[in-house]
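Changelog note: in this version the structure field was regenerated for every chain. One regenerated record is shown below for reference.
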Amino acid sequence: MLKLRPAIVLDVEDPDTQLTVLDAHAGDGPEQTLRIKLTDDNADDAPRAAIADVSLVGRSEAGDEVIVNVQALDLGLGSGGFDVVHVNLTRGLDGEGSEAANVMKLNYTSLQHTVEPVDDGLLEVPLERPVAVLALHGQLAPVAWAYAQSAPEGRLGYVQTAGGALPGGHSRTVRALRERGLLAGHITAGAAFGGELEAISTAGAIHHGLHTLGWDAVVCGPGPGIVGSSSALGHGGMVALDSAHVALALGCPTLLVARMSSSDDRTRHRGISHHTLTVLDLLLEPVTVALPAGMRSPVGADLRAGLGAVFGGSMPGRPALALDVPRPVRITRHDWRRAAVDLPAYATSGLSTVTMGRGLGEDPLFFGAALAGGGALAQLNGALHRQGALAAEAKLEE
């Protein structure tokens, strides 16, 4: 059940309020950072952190009476350590919607609202432009940065899916990438909402970005803070399986960005994560998977040797990697491609260098694998452009 409690807004954008979620917004963007005090009979005097999605509940000001959802903060969730404004009783009861919008998102919930979907009327396939599929939102920045280093003129768009945070305005990373020109656009698909454009389905979002907007490539994946249950299938990373199948069905060369870690406390995520291995095992068709150049394999002795070759002596002591991961035929059938990575350059890029509370120096393999994904995506783009140029030359010679 919803866990709602009344509160009063103490102040907005208080510099002393630090939210634990990595990508929470502050300032005048789509989300406000608030400091609130619960006001019901069971409330204590301790202030609490909260966020308000401006597109849904309007802007808040000090002194406003609000109703907040306290479930995540009360549970102590690492990626949800704040309350969420459900409604602003002082000024948020007279919302306005677009008369042209006729599709609901968050439909049949108390936060249902109308959007104008961009899903194209005609289906034209194959699209023949690459799609990179993410397991975690934290991979987005290194993928986009590495893609831009190899394809500076390329137009890379982001399709946000379910699996993590659904509000499109919840990512500081997306805002930074858009401001620096490293993303050409942001479409929220399916249950996700609040991006620059809205699509009813992931297929519709990818198709619109590549076919109508003219993106050269798509990076597709969940917002911040994926859901997890420690089980094989019960986690937000499984959305990568759906997204990869959609990309393949649309005729897009499909790249899976491997989730890897050199220092995750959980054995199942060290080396190559069980999230990535499960998706690779279940995919109906082979895809491309990137590894940092010099790394022959993501498992076994080859992984240990590759870590030394790629990251050298810069890796401090960490928990032992899960090297003895089985390699069934369904894993080896994929196209394992190597791409050069430049960790020092990315470290000075000003983009996010933290994942799950670990910095780049603590977990270089996570960022190295994501950077390899961006480089490999540019390789796929380049190969398609060369094929197109050769086909055009051949046609002229006929």
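Spot check on this record: Confidence is low (pLDDT under 50) at residues 14-28. The longest helix spans residues 364-397.
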